Amino acid sequence: MVSDMDPALNPFKPGSGLRPPALEGRDAERREFDLLVTRSKLRNYDRGMMLSGLRGVGKTTLLNNLAEHAENRGWLTIGIEARPNEAGVAAVRAKLGNELAAGLRRFSRRHKLQKTLDGLVELARGFTLGVGVGPAKVELTLGRQAATGDLDLDLEELVEAISEVMKKRASAFGLFIDEMQDLDADLLGALLAVQHRASQREWPFFVIGAGLPSLPAVLAGTRSYAERQFAYSTVGPLSPTDAADALRIPVERHGGEFTSGALEILVEASGGYPYFLQEFGKAIWAVAPETPFTGEDALLAVEEGRRALDDGFFPSRWNRATERERRYLRAIAATGEVAPRSGTVAAAMGLTTTAVSDVRDSAIKKGLVWSPEHGRIGFTVPGMDDFIRRQPTD
Ligand SMILES: Nc1ncnc2c1ncn2[C@@H]1O[C@H](COP(=O)(O)OP(=O)(O)O)[C@@H](O)[C@H]1O
Ligand SMILES: [Mg+2]
């Protein structure tokens, strides 16, 4: 029995991309990715990966884990996060160029190869600057490296040059992109085209992406071959066993325990949803005076955890919605269904499906709702419907 649950030692971490105390239930994806890395060492190249799923399900965490693994096994890795309405291709391109230059320097240090990569760092810097010239496409010369200002060409040149070096070392270049559905369309198109060429020419270059459930459709809509270009996997809630492990293992590491009843209550209330598991785990550590954590502690923790969600997680979504979007979200919540027909929601608002299509699209773009199947609409986080029903109408 451990008493005095020191708040400073609380291992649970609700948040975005925060490394969980136990990363459970992602073995299949991690094994698949490890195989890609192992094959790259044999110069037997496979496809990159796309992870999609709802918010808070653990995509960023998994993506970071894969990137770290690749880096430990000698890949050159860089990560970027796309944002909606980013100040145009310029910003994303600059970020990509800067990250690349930094990634290359990190790689040089780690593998003690200063000289070999200096040229590549220059090239990456040239890529960053190439954007400044915009549509004028003036040649910008940096030493022997030139950026043409043409995104597709510059990106291809850069990837080819890096791939050449990586291939010699039986290594690979992994580009990890989070929130990939928000990537600027020009850059996305260019990346898919370069990835396509890389596979054909056996360059060790792999895009590993994560994003909302709309990601596969965004990719397919950008390049028709995108469907065959990647191994797609859906990141979902954890199974009850994995969810229980995600709570139990960190507590046991501190010498504590759960009664099986307590675990069952928390797993059930979380729906296996990773963000909620962290929130409830954090809460039980905070409210229970000692372990083993009991069923009574668990009930208190669920109450406390829900209060925390109501103070942060849900409002951060609700507050992003416009007045019209809120009316639409309320109508969805009012149906009491998980994924009502779009027509039913529109009818409840006294409107036609066409009349609500723009508000539906903008709510989807913001990641507030998604279409789990054709003609249906649902919230991107579990419990959002209950939260909305609790909001006073104004
Ligand atoms: N496999 C997992 N097991 C336990 N907790 C997890 C797991 N994956 C993510 N988490 C936790 O869930 C929360 C949300 O993860 P995050 O990666 O930000 O989700 P997403 O990117 O899908 O919105 C974080 O607090 C993280 O620590
Ligand atoms: Mg994320």
From TrEMBL:
Pfam families: AAA_16. InterPro entries: AAA_16, P-loop_NTPase. Signal peptide: none annotated. The keyword Nucleotide-binding applies. SUPFAM superfamilies: P-loop containing nucleoside triphosphate hydrolases. Gene3D superfamilies: P-loop containing nucleotide triphosphate hydrolases. This is ATP-binding protein. The lineage of its organism: Bacteria, Bacillati, Actinomycetota, Actinomycetes, Mycobacteriales.
